[in-house]
Amino acid sequence: MWMQSKLSNALFIELKGGERVEKAYLDKYDIMNIFDCCADRAMAIIRSIKSVSDSLKIKGKVTKADYDAWFNRPLKKDSANDTTRALSN
Which helix (DSSP H) or strand (DSSP E) does residue 13 occupy? Predict the structure, then answer.
């Protein structure tokens, strides 16, 4: 929940006079703010997002739709870490 509020804050730019304008993309600084991480980790997250969806095709930037596709993707279950399988043997 808190990550979604950080995401919505990152998607807007505050202009002089208090007007907020929606950004078309997220960059490494936005990802650093959302995940509270360093620049290297933010770029790794961006690469991971782009491996799922890359509609902009611009280095270092992803759209909210790309982020949402990555965030909501079904996670693969690693058979080596599958405890139910290990316990059944």
Answer: strand 12-14
Give the model's confidence band at 80: pLDDT under 50 very low, under 70 low, under 90 confident, else very high: low
Cα gap 60→31, rounded to integer Å: 10
Distance between CA atoms of residues 61 and 67, nearest Å = 10
Domain boundaries, the chain: 2-74
87 by DSSP, 3-state: which? helix
Is this prediction's pTM over 0.85?
no
Q: Looking up tokens 């730019």, which residue turns up?
A: 13
Q: What is the largest CA-CA distance in the chain?
A: 65
Tokens 């965030």 belong to 71
